[in-house]
Amino acid sequence: MQFLCKEYQDGNPRVRSLVTETRIHLVPSLNPDGYELAREAGSELGNWALGHWTEEGYDLFENFPDLASALWAAEERRLVPHKFPNHHIPIPEHYLAEDATVAVETRAVMAWMDKNPFVLGANLQGGEKLVSYPFDTARPVSEMPAAAPRPPDDYEDDNPELQETPDHAIFRWLAISYASAHLTMTETFRGGCHTQDMTNAMGIVQGAKWHPRAGSMNDFSYLHTNCLELSVYLGCDKFPHESELQQEWENNKESLLTFMEQVHRGIKGLVTDQQGEPIANATIVVGGINHNIKTASGGDYWRILNPGEYRVSARAEGYNPSVKTCSVFYDIGATQCNFVLSRSNWKRIREIMAMNGNRPIRRIVPGRPMTPRERMRLRMRL
After folding, report:
1. Does residue 231 sit in the same domain as residue 318?
2. How is residue 278 annotated by DSSP?
3. Contact between 192 and 209 (Cβ < 8 Å)
4. Quick count: other Cβ atoms within 10 Å of Cβ 347?
């Protein structure tokens, strides 16, 4: 916070561009109760678990709804996407009940996510030095779909429980953008903080491969909102000494800036009707990626994508879909890709079909006299 404010006032062009073109939200602590416990003990007397849970005993990072398992169960029953969505999966009703075992912090974060159309997020943690990306949930072997064979030199070991997100390549890029800019995160020749290096010297790992868990904030953010969220583990010491904080900042400064700049990679635009009015909750579909997003209340959208050419469509209830080709380039700066949707008459057609018992309406051939029965049916329809 101090760095952004000072560099902005000093005229740093990079920071000025970032601040003026990005809506930045910073949360100093998601678990202030746990932080107080860890601060009192300090680095020597504390351990990895101290301060991990809230005062009520909740592990916030595993306290969110497990939407991944619900999605996979729907896929098994072939309900996706015509009856079960592949995005913006609703929160189960039992989870929202007053007596549900949900932390007040978790409820606050979920409401915060629903209120703001976040695009990119990172939660900063300690105890390891790597970047973790979704899925964090391990898919049961019986639910695994038939997958294409991997190339023999792929960086991940064969793991029947490892289920990749449709945005796997994008998540890897985002994770690498942080880890590669960090001063020491890819120096894994000494192994990990506690065990062997799980990242193959890259500093990044999929959560389900490293530490499988259900109900993570990363999985929830991906499946319930438009936001791509990752976990950044800043170092082995969960509570560094004050004298070490300056070096920790230098290790992460460039990574934080580079990661935040990635929000401007991909496509963005407006979805409006023919009168120029914005269309909220329109669905943006990117060909080849089985995960859609929605427009915000102002009809605007952002979609982080790797460089390439994409077939993108915009769809909304009561409108005809619109399709166009959008190109994403290597330089930072999202490609503008706007859509104008025309009103559809399918709603009226469905009403007429329902009046006819959902049976096909016989076409009247000009020049051929109608039978009394046909004339009566026409009169009833009119």
Report:
1. no
2. B
3. no
4. 11
Task: Please say which residue of 204, 229, 263 terminates a domain.
Answer: 263
CA 178 – CA 170 distance, rounded (Å)? 13
Q: If you ran DSSP here, which 8-state letter would residue 242 be given?
A: G
- Contact of 59 with 213, CB cutoff 8 Å: no
Q: How far apart (Å, rounded) are the C-alpha atoms in residues 168 and 147? A: 14
What lies within 8 Å, CB to CB, of 335 at 6+ separation is: 266, 267, 268, 326, 327, 328, 329
Which residues lie below 8 Å from residue 238, measured CB to CB, with a gap of 6+?
38, 43, 46, 48, 50, 51, 126, 127
What is the Cα–Cα distance from 201 to 180, expressed in whole angstroms? 11
pLDDT in tens, 330-342: 988 999 999 999 9
pTM: 0.84
Instruction: State the residue range of the domain holding 46.
Output: 31-141+163-263
Residues 120 and 210 in one domain: yes
Cβ-count burial 32-68 (b if 16+ within 10 Å, e if not): eebeebbeeeeeeebeeebbbbbeeebbbbebbbbbb
Q: Pairing between strand 266-273 and 339-341?
A: parallel
The dihedral through the CA atoms of 198, 29, 138, 48 has a sign that is: positive
Domain count, the chain: 2
Does 325 share its domain with 294? yes
Amino acid at 144: M
Within this chain, do residues 258 and 308 fall inside the same structural domain, yes or no?
Answer: no
pLDDT tens per residue across span 272-309: 999 999 999 999 999 999 999 999 999 999 999 999 99
7 inside domain = no
Let me know whether 91 and 187 are in one domain: yes
In a domain, 222, yes or no: yes
Q: Give the CATH number, domain containing residue 344.
A: 2.60.40.1120
